[in-house]
Amino acid sequence: MQDAVVVGGGPAGSSFAFELAKRGLSVTVFEEHKQIGFPSHCAGHLSVRSLRSLGLYPLPEGIVENTFSAANFYSPRGTKFSVHLSQPLTCAVNRARFDQFLAKKAEKAGAKFNLGIRVESLIVESNFVKGLNVVNSDGIEEQIRAKLVVDGEGISSRLLRQAGLVTLRPETMVYAVEAEMENVVEVEEHAVEVYVGKDYAPGFYGWLIPRLDGTAKVGLATRRGNPKEFLERLMSRHPVASRQLKSANVKSLAFHAITLGGPIPRAYTNGFLALGDCASQVKPTTGGGVIFSITCAKAAAETAAETLTKSDLSSKALSAYQKRFMDKLGFDFDVMLRARKAVDSFSDEKIDRALRFASKVGFDKSLRDVDEIDFQGRTLLGMVRKPAAYATLAYLLGLYLQDFRL
Fold first, then answer.
1. Cβ neighbours around 139 below 10 Å, total
2. Could you state, in order of their start, the residue ranges of all structural domains in the chain?
3. I need a surface site. Which of 30, 262, 349, 404 has the fewest CB within 10 A?
């Protein structure tokens, strides 16, 4: 019997498998697709500092597509706020190659990967998760027994529901579309373009992440309506994006959901852990989940190794996992949830005023030496000491509180 089985070969699942395998424990990853990294559902825009702190940077050749030391933010009216940093802060990765790199790393540590295997359900006996019911590529059903099951299947509540845990909340979800485009013009090579406002991306934002060859990843997410229609609107009507994308050709489209509600209240039960998107371990502000899922994978593997060694896979023993990752990320999640609530309340007119104010007081200079974008609560604490940053945050708070005045 395996010590652990993992559902899903994305960054969360592969990182957990690596961390457990390097401790000498047996772990097998079941991935429903026949190739790791496909289909890709993410822009792959990651923090260089966070990757380095996780021991993943520099990445092997061919994974990083571009690095970024600037960002341009646009209101629906076209008002621009630009930030130019003292050094590259983020990079764009080829998500398929990045995921494959993490999987190969886990394999080298001793983890096994079974591809093209669909997990149908959990095996639950006496209120304990005991394994998986799977269907292989030949359509043959099989039971896989394990001491611990880890759910890393992505944005799904299927196995959470079977395990008796609280599922992802529909009201906290946004729905994204991302296009691969060529012939993108009027963009800085090392700057990310961000389009905010309800007119084009209600409940989230749009993005353009350029490569050096004139192609780009262009997308947005929305809390309502059809994301493809909003993307078409962005391309045709936005005062800035319409110029940048006027000659662009759409090579492919991908759709996916993003959860912005913060971590589910309990990501564990008897014999079971939830990890990554399915546990809503995603930044409520930007929707990024890769760095946090890898961070949580480490916490999950530490807990799993301890409980497997003691032969105690009870909910009480596995609760240490939740404490570990919340000790690491809880403050930042709380700050980001509050920030998301505030930004969601802003009208497009308020967003335009906020960007104008930030430019006027020189907020961009306060951001010049920022080197942390994942742990945003801590970043904000560090920034409030700077007059322009304090003034901008106070102005944003004032805009938010306007809606609560009697």
1. 7
2. 2-44+96-170+262-339, 67-91+173-259, 342-404
3. 404
For residue 187, the cross-strand partners are none
CB 117 within 8 A of CB 154: no
pLDDT per position as a tens digit, 190-243: 999 999 999 999 999 999 999 999 999 999 999 999 999 999 999 999 999 999
Q: Which helix (H) or strand (E) holds 343?
A: helix 315-345
The pair phi, psi for residue 292, each rounded to 5°, is -65, -35
Average pLDDT, the chain: 96
Residues ≥6 apart with Cβ < 8 Å to 272:
122, 129, 148, 149, 150, 151, 163, 165, 318
Q: How far apart are alpha carbons 239 and 266 in whole angstroms?
A: 44
Cα separations (Å) of 284 from 41, 130, 132, 336, 359?
17, 33, 31, 6, 25
pTM for the full model?
0.97
Query: What is the rounded distance in angstroms from the CA atom of residue 98 to the CA atom of residue 169?
Result: 29
For the domain 67-91+173-259, what is the CATH superfamily, name and number? D-Amino Acid Oxidase, subunit A, domain 2 (3.30.9.10)
